[in-house]
Design a protein that fits this description.
By secondary structure, the chain is of the alpha+beta class. It is 25% helix and 26% strand. It is globular, with a radius of gyration of 20 Å. 46% of the residues are buried.
Amino acid sequence: MKTTLSVIKADIGSIAGHIRPSQALVESVKDCIESELGKLITDYYIGNTGDDVAILFAHQHGEGCQELHQLAWNAFICGTEKAKEQGLYGAGQDLLADAFSGNVKGLGPAVAEMEIEERKAEPFLLFTADKTDPGAYNLPLYLSFADPMHCSGLLLSSKIKQGFKFVILDVEHTEEDRMIELYTPEDTYDIAALLRDNQRFVVQAIYSRATGAQATAASTTRLHNIAGTYTGKDDPVLMVRCQGDFPATGEILSPYSIGHYVAGFMRGSHTGPLMPAKMGCSISYFDGPPVVSAVGFCVHNGKLTEPVDCFDHPYWDHVRDKVSQKSVYMREQGFSGPAMLHYSELEYGGIVDILKKLEDRFSC
């Protein structure tokens, strides 16, 4: 049976700054979605990571379904109205257009979709991140699909060792999608050369070379490319199918124990370690640290199981302690050097304005 999994995520309002959405806001989004259960959609899940609301849809209408995207847009509009009613901060922040135009891609929300042929058992993970950009998934995906230090299946599974196709997008090329397809194991070093640059090159999808089946789908939207100014960090989403022909669940989760440094944190303009956070987590220290949640499901005949929180285990408490320490170490450096992003990536233009103002005061 073919099923389409679509996740659409947006920041539409939050309590006390960038902490988390109100329960009333989430309920208003749910009420809008609920009416289409059993009609347009076969199932859904709504959750939040930090101040973003994510909607996961299961349906049979393929990728880019206009009616589904319209439903998500309407639900975010309902949530925005509730945010305005409650006086929440940043009401409708990620809705960058005045009206829906057929697809929410390019309108602000993060979108990832894949149409799959359901296996007998179809486990997958939904990753939702806050206070970071799409490149935050580059290293974990590389390690899970190309490095036997994290994916032992590359040594032990005859299908997995055949490798994977990486579809990588150049997100600086804003006129149209510019992408490249590279293959493991022969292109492994070339993939690494691209993915080291998290702000330019982003993994859009990965496919099994053994079967051709799609393994991952990620959002690649850069909000400042759409809006032309600061509107918040991109807060990307990622879906990963696991087990069988793909890396095991534990192999997908393993790289998140690193707490690798990514762009984000306060005003989207700093560097901080990515913290594996529990479902429904809030945002706190220095509008961070950058966080990612992992929710596991199985889907069968278009119906989702209840979610399982993959980072709700005592082991991840140890990782969170490590990430907290790494955050403090970097924040002790303040605005200096790698603690703050390069001028080209700053989400606020204040420093650029300062440089322009000082230009005439330089002398040779």
